[in-house]
TrEMBL record:
This is Sulfhydryl oxidase. GO terms for molecular function: flavin adenine dinucleotide binding; flavin-dependent sulfhydryl oxidase activity. InterPro entries: ALR/ERV, ERV/ALR_sulphydryl_oxid_sf, ERV/ALR_sulphydryl_oxidase. The chain crosses the membrane at residues 6-24. It comes from Thamnidium elegans.
Length: 165
């Protein structure tokens, strides 16, 4: 029993050290753009092919929008520069790696034209809602009233605070 505790402790400490290394190591920026600089499309970098099964494509789309809207709802109200860069980089990589190549190409063109707004939770949520509506219009689906986006995808932040108390 004692040996298991020692091995477990060593594994946990090792994982913590490795995690700390990856969090604090100096990383090369994935996208280097300065304020006011035009973002080049990564359309050529889309790596997935067209998704042939329409049902799976629609299921993926619904799940993806739920994920992205929830992520924006939990994005910091006043993000640091690092958090802002992380969100922007994530969205650019997302448009390259999305499993539906056709969707990825369209999304990449959109975010090249309308770069991610990362200054606040509200800005990010409203930006994503506008992108979602852009897709809905292209697919001839109803657009969503973005003024109600926070109610549709609540942050859940209050729940987090109360669970830690």
């Amino acid at each position: 029993m004692r040996r298991v505790q020692i091995v477990t402790t060593v594994v946990v400490v090792t994982l913590l050290l490795i995690s700390t290394f990856f969090v604090y190591r100096k990383q090369e920026p994935v996208f280097e753009t300065k304020p006011g600089e035009e973002i080049e499309s990564d359309e050529a970098k889309v790596i997935m092919s067209v998704m042939g099964n329409q049902t799976e494509k629609e299921e993926l789309g619904r799940a993806t929008w739920k994920f992205l809207h929830t992520m924006m709802a939990r994005y910091p109200e006043t993000p640091t520069e690092t958090e802002r860069k992380s969100l922007k980089d994530f969205m650019m990589l997302f448009s390259t790696l999305y499993p539906c190549g056709e969707c990825a190409t369209h999304f990449n063109k959109m975010i090249t034209t309308y770069p991610p707004q990362t200054s606040s939770r509200v800005a990010a949520s409203q930006w994503l809602c506008a992108m979602h509506n852009n897709v809905n219009e292209r697919l001839k689906k109803p657009v969503f009233d973005c003024s109600g986006i926070e109610a549709k995808y609540p942050c859940g932040c209050d729940e987090e605070k109360s669970s830690n108390e």
